TrEMBL record:
This is Small ribosomal subunit biogenesis GTPase RsgA. Monomer. Associates with 30S ribosomal subunit, binds 16S rRNA. GTP binds at N121, K122, T123, D124, G176, P177, S178, G179, T180, G181, K182, S183, T184. Signal peptide: none annotated. Keywords: Cytoplasm, GTP-binding, Hydrolase, Metal-binding, Nucleotide-binding, Ribosome biogenesis, RNA-binding, rRNA-binding, Zinc. Zn(2+) binds at C259, C264, H266, C272. Gene3D superfamilies: Nucleic acid-binding proteins (2.40.50.140), P-loop containing nucleotide triphosphate hydrolases (3.40.50.300), Probable gtpase engc, domain 3 (1.10.40.50). Residues 82-234 form the EngC GTPase domain.
């Protein structure tokens, strides 16, 4: 008999330090801590846990993950969530979004095998045409990304109708900088979202950290559709990516990487298909510039 047969299987819906909220198959939630000193669980993990009391438990093991979305800089690794179906990168007409951060998020998702889409919010504002133009390369065939256009505050029902079918039945991670409308999106699609945050924060005794913790929300009573919200961030490191493999996680570069040399860096070698595609306008100059910047970062890695 497996030692895990007597343990409950649960879903991590929030974590704070060494304490986690774990939801069982019946929807009951427990405040759990891991056995021992090591804390490996992240939101979205399936864990085996033992009930210690009516609302507390001990995590004994983390089940194997099918994927993990994370970022890594020179100093630390930050895991966003595990076992995701898709990533929604939320950007806005205002404030003007960073294409570098957008690219980095998409590269992280591609490397983790997580499909992605972009949602452009605040399309009721005058700068929408400029934002649309900046996102044009992401709509093209070699990228193959869906780019939704919404106005989460100005057109609540239209936004719900636009995003709802794509989100339905999926576990979707919502990523984006502060001010783009993530909270508005969550409150639009999740009934009593703020109440859920308050209840979990009270259970974890971490109310002051409610804006700095990844949070799992069910949008339906059957718990088949989930939105996972994350805190904002300033940097998105990709040090988990091997420099020589970076181009493979950028579909437009990958599409044109028919180069003379098998180990082409796509920066200076003759006979480079990527550079030819940039010159022909088949790869956007901004994405190629961002590729060069990230490649330079990765080549400077020290271990």
């Amino acid at each position: 008999m497996s030692k895990f047969q007597a343990l409950d299987l649960g879903l991590v819906v929030r974590g704070h330090g060494r304490h986690y909220i774990v939801e069982d198959a019946d929807g009951r939630r427990f405040v759990c801590h891991p056995r021992g000193k090591k804390s490996d669980a992240v939101v979205g993990d399936q864990v085996r846990f033992a009930e210690a009391s009516a609302d507390e438990g001990v995590i004994e093991a983390v089940e194997p993950r099918r994927n993990l979305l994370f970022r890594q800089d020179e100093w630390k690794t930050k895991s966003f969530a595990a076992n995701l179906d898709q990533l929604l990168v939320l950007v806005a007409v205002e404030p003007v979004f960073s294409e570098s951060q957008l690219c980095r998020a998409l590269i992280a998702a591609e490397s983790a095998g997580i499909r992605a889409a972009i949602a452009l919010n605040k399309t009721d504002l005058p700068g929408r045409d400029t934002a649309r133009e900046r996102l044009a390369p992401y709509r093209e065939a070699c990228m193959g990304l869906t780019v939704f256009e919404v106005a989460l505050k100005a057109d609540r029902e239209g936004s719900r109708a636009t995003l709802g079918p794509w989100l339905d039945g999926q576990r979707s991670f919502v990523l984006g900088p502060s001010g783009t409308g993530k909270s508005t999106l969550i409150n639009l699609l999740v009934q009593d979202a703020q109440a859920q945050v308050g209840e979990i924060s009270q259970a974890l005794n971490s109310g002051r950290h409610t804006t700095t913790t990844t949070q799992w929300y069910w949008t339906d009573a059957t718990r088949s559709t989930a939105l996972i919200d994350s805190p904002g961030f300033q940097e998105f490191g990709l040090r988990q990516i091997d420099a020589a493999e970076l181009w493979r996680y950028m579909p437009d570069l990958r599409e044109h990487a028919d180069c003379r040399f098998h180990n082409c860096s796509h920066i200076h070698e003759p006979g480079c298909g990527v550079r030819a595609a940039v010159e022909a306008g088949q790869i956007s100059a901004s994405r190629y510039r961002i590729y060069g910047e990230i490649l330079e970062e990765l080549q400077r890695k020290t271990w």
